Amino acid sequence: MNRLPLFPITTKTDNNLLTIAGHDLSSMAAEYGTPLYLYDRATMDAAVTAYKSALATRYPASASVTYAGKAFLNLAVAQWTQTHGLYVDCTGEGEIGMALAGGVPREHILVHGVNKSNADLTAAVKHAGTIVVDNLTELERIADQFPTLAPHASAGITSYHLPNIWLRLLPGLAVETHHAHTQTGQHDSKFGMTSAEIMEAAQFCKANKLPLNGIHFHQGSNFRDASPLKAAIELGLDLAAEIGFADGWHFSPGGGWGVAYHEDELPQPDADEYVRVIAESIIGGVQTRRLSLPHLHLEPGRSLVARAGVAVYRVGAIKRRGKKVWILTDGGMTDNPRHAMYGARYSCLTVSNPGGENVEKVSIAGPYCESGDVVIEDLPMPKLEVGDLIAIPASGAYHLSMSSNYNGSRKPAVLLLEEGQARLIQRRETIEDLLRRDLGL
Ligand SMILES: Cc1ncc(COP(=O)(O)O)c(C=O)c1O
């Protein structure tokens, strides 16, 4: 099975050598060391374009793409979002800080969080265009701690200067993902408010003159069947009608559209299909409820950056234990905890022999002191030798943003690749970085 469609769109295997945007992966590994993360800008740009053109054809009112920063955020990525005019979903003040550093304007900063701290809320009120409120307590805290919000709103200052308030609905409906830990919309989830709580929150906003103008939900991450969105959209529209939103209201069915991680999952899910289901449901739904078409916000993270990212590891040792062949590499659960956390499946190619014939099943494990430090299990591969480089596709989302310093590991360098240019956008961490916060005895 061809693994190339898992890789960035500029990937080539001419002369049996893996290149991305014309850059040879072995030279980059030699220059920057391994583990190394490479992002292909053309793949990121193409993913945004796919969403935007689907929205332009399928949705007749205003619509925006919001990049979910939790997938992978740093200075360069925040700056990149503004080359496309994206909104950025920030979880708390840390991501707000990164977005601001990258020049994301206030009206494009949207703040999520299931239990926002006072610091998160303060940063949101100061810097964000929208706060997505997760629960009633949070709403009460906003009203208590920022009483200036309501008088400003009632004094007629436009909501542009204040964060809009959206309410996060728990639809009680999950999408199908590979693991329960990537579902968020099911009835017993920790996220969002039930329909009854949403109505209570809406009344609270009215009584306290909070600038409520939107509804959001997010059902899960990495799904490829969009149909469960329909019922959740219906529910969201019911609530919007009951609240009585005026023209110009906002509706966000979250993100979560999937990508292929393994050749078994090809072809890549089509963003147009996802947008079609959402657009048709909303267009049909508003007609029967005498609501105006909302400003539609899509909130993809993974599907904008996962395929663009490739992790490059070097093989340091090989062990044969019964039927198990362990390929021990210098990358593992500290840069990619997804297999350890919820059994995510991956595939890979060897950098210097991507067309090689598969001869045995191998498991790729990292150097860390955990048996669960495994990234790939039982994948057919060509013969591998100590010193070989492997390239793992679909590594752009929820790897580095969930990375750790376990065992004193230092987070890898990150390069942004374009034809004719390989830019170091994040240097490898050093031992000084590990000690930076320490004060000693
Ligand atoms: C509120 C919200 N929006 C968007 C996303 C992005 O999901 P994905 O990266 O799967 O598109 C998430 C991810 O968990 C989320 O919690």
Structure notes:
- This protein is α/β, with parallel strands linked by helices and 441 residues long.
- The chain is globular and about 70 Å long.
- The protein has two domains: 4-40 and 307-435, Lyase, Ornithine Decarboxylase, Chain A, domain 1 (Beta Barrel); 42-305, Alanine racemase (TIM Barrel).
- The chain contains 13 helices and 19 strands.
- 30% of the residues lie in helices and 22% in strands.
- α8 runs parallel beside α9.
- Strands 3, 12, 13, 14, 15, 16, 17, 18 and 19 form a nine-stranded mixed beta sheet that branches. An eight-stranded parallel beta barrel has the order 4-5-6-7-8-9-10-11, surrounded by seven helices.
- Pyridoxal-5'-phosphate (PLP) binds at residues 68, 70-71, 89, 112, 218, 221-222, 254-257, 299-303, 397.
Radius of gyration based on Cα positions? 23 Å
Oligomer: single chain
Low-confidence stretches: none
The top-level CATH class of the largest domain is Alpha Beta
Measured distance between first and last alpha carbons: 57 Å
Q: Tell me the CATH topology of the largest domain.
A: TIM Barrel
Strand content: 15-25%
Bin the helical content.
25-40%
Short description:
The chain is an alpha/beta fold. The chain contains 13 helices and 19 strands. The termini are far apart.
Helix and strand layout, with pairings?
Layout lengths: L18 E2 L2 E2 H8 L3 E5 H18 L4 E6 L6 H9 L3 E5 H10 L7 E4 L5 H10 L2 E4 L2 H10 L3 H6 L9 E5 L26 H13 L4 E5 L11 H16 L6 E3 L18 H17 L7 E4 L3 H4 L3 E13 L2 E6 L8 H5 L6 E2 L9 E6 L8 E8 L7 E4 L20 E6 L2 E6 L4 H5 L6
The structure holds pyridoxal-5'-phosphate.
The site of pyridoxal-5'-phosphate has 18 residues, from α11.
